[in-house]
Amino acid sequence: MELEVEDNNYMINGISLQNIRNRFEVIVIKLMEKNFPQFAEFDNCPICTEDVYALSLSRIPSVYVKDVSQVFDDDELMTENVEEIVKYAIFQVMSNPKHKHKKGKSKET
Ligand SMILES: [Zn+2]
Fold first, then answer.
1. Residue 100 Cα, ligand 1 centroid: separation in angstroms?
2. Which end of the chain is more exposed for a tag (fewer CB within 10 A), N or C?
3. What spacing in Å lies between the alpha carbon of 35 and ligand 1's midpoint?
4. What residues does each domain of the chain span?
5. What pTM was computed for the model?
6. How far apart are alpha carbons 75 and 43 in whole angstroms?
7. CA-closest candidate to residue 23, choices 79, 99, 67, 84
8. Which residues of the chain have pLDDT under 70?
9. Count of alpha carbons within 13 angstroms of residue 53, beta-carbon side
10. Of 31, 24, 5, nearest in space to 71 by CA
């Protein structure tokens, strides 16, 4: 996975906003890695993993528009908030996967 992709779309007035973007993405990925084992029912398949990632990031923009310097001053609190978002996303995707379970893991009664 390339985290250092050059992307001029994140330039405005000669200022790169890409680092902010990467920062949240990296935090989300690390938190996904950390929290996946805690959700025993999560199947860890590529579709669900991507969905958790996308859903997590889609819930973060309200943080982006806040005072960025403040966000970075309080990195620990930031990570805590993002972790709640990630856990929620894992739970949502786990409960409603976009695919049928193929591993025969589901307990349909
Ligand atoms: Zn899946």
1. 8
2. C
3. 16
4. 24-95
5. 0.71
6. 30
7. 79
8. 1-7, 61-75, 77, 101-109
9. 14
10. 24
